[in-house]
């Protein structure tokens, strides 16, 4: 198998079999170098700048390939690796990392459902994430998707590129006065609700706890059945945990209005994709916008244009003209990515200094003696 690897040319530091840095008897100790997986082209200069911000601090080596079973051996000799949101960090991958000398995993995302935290703790690996970044990036993109679906923007653009300027099939609705359901009213959900309030929408919320800032906007919290049955637009902003896996299942989809719009910029596993296909096949829902997909690992962030699409569910979803799929880019703004890589560099520096900040998920490992 050919792995697309793009590496920043630099020489890795000398290391022992345990992954610790060796001191060169003839000179000063070499600085730590971090191996970062799944680095996007636009992300790389920001990531390098974040680690270069502190003179003498850790440097970063960037790979385009995501971390998974095939690429994990590349991390041999690196005490610290940084993973992307679509990396696979199950027990098998973590074991390979640990055997190669890795002692810390710094994930460049808030979500961490792709990491087996129990296995990391057993292996003595420290795991950190980014607990927060600009909520506006995701909230604004969710509304961009909702508007694109509701106002048939993609269909219109495809037509006008062929010089077809008819309006047939392009009629939309005013957002003003519609009921917008926000599932998950944390920071991102709150930003999404504020934008909806600006449109003049009625706000409906679903969460384990009410957000006073949302209730101040006039949001009414409802049970699951009421939430799905009354909302004209449903946007998902809850974390993916066992309780929210397939939150939008066949039952929830059956409750939704025939002309409702569903938007997911959270995690792919929040929606039962097979049930969604069946719902769309029956001619229900006005539109669906997905920036995430439950089987996106190995697909999103990669160029698959010259390959046969073997994921039948995703291929079927994309045959519907009122379904819009983007490749997990809601967070991808200069502001948000800058905050993410800055926090990641800070997590690594804290670990090297023996500090455990709020972003640490598994504080099992210990930094090397300095």
TrEMBL record:
Residues 1-30 are annotated as: Disordered. This is 2-hydroxyacid dehydrogenase. The keyword Metal-binding does not apply. Residues 40-360 form the D-isomer specific 2-hydroxyacid dehydrogenase catalytic domain. Keywords: NAD, Oxidoreductase. It comes from the Bacteria. Belongs to the D-isomer specific 2-hydroxyacid dehydrogenase family. The lineage of its organism: Bacteria, Bacillati, Actinomycetota, Actinomycetes, Kitasatosporales. The keyword NAD applies. Residues 144-330 form the D-isomer specific 2-hydroxyacid dehydrogenase NAD-binding domain. Residues 12-30 have a biased composition (Basic and acidic residues). CDD domains: LDH_like_2.
């Amino acid at each position: 198998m050919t792995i697309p690897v793009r590496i920043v040319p630099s020489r890795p530091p000398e290391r022992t079999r345990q992954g610790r840095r060796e001191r060169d008897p003839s000179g000063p100790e070499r600085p730590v170098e971090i191996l970062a997986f799944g680095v996007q082209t636009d992300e790389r200069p920001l990531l390098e700048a974040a680690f270069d911000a502190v003179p003498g601090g850790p440097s970063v080596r960037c790979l385009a390939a995501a971390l998974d079973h095939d690429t994990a051996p590349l991390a041999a000799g690196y005490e610290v690796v940084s993973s992307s949101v679509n990396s696979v960090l199950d027990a098998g991958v973590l074991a390979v990392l640990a055997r190669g000398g890795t002692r810390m995993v710094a994930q460049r995302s808030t979500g961490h459902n792709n990491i087996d935290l129990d296995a990391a703790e057993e292996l003595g690996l420290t795991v950190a994430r980014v607990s927060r970044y600009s909520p506006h990036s995701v909230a604004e993109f969710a509304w961009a998707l909702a508007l694109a679906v509701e106002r048939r923007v993609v269909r219109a653009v495809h037509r006008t590129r062929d010089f077809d300027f008819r309006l047939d099939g392009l009629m939309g609705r005013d957002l003003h006065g519609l009921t917008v359901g926000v599932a998950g009213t944390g920071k991102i959900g709150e930003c999404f609700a504020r934008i909806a309030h600006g449109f003049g929408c009625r706000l409906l919320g679903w969460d384990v706890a009410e957000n006073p800032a949302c209730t101040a906007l006039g949001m009414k919290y409802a049970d699951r059945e009421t939430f799905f049955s009354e909302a004209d637009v449903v946007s998902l902003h809850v974390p993916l945990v066992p309780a929210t896996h397939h939150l939008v299942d066949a039952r929830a989809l059956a409750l939704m209005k025939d002309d409702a719009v569903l938007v997911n910029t959270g995690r792919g596993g929040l929606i039962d994709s097979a049930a969604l296909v069946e719902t769309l096949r029956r001619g229900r829902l006005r539109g669906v916008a997905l920036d995430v997909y439950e089987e996106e690992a190995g697909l999103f962030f990669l160029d698959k244009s010259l390959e046969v699409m073997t994921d039948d569910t995703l291929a079927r979803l994309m045959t519907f003209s009122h379904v819009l799929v983007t490749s997990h880019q809601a967070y991808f703004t200069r502001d948000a990515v800058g905050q993410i890589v800055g926090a990641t560099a800070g997590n690594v520096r804290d670990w090297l200094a023996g500090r455990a900040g709020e972003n640490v998920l598994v504080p099992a490992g210990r930094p090397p003696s300095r």
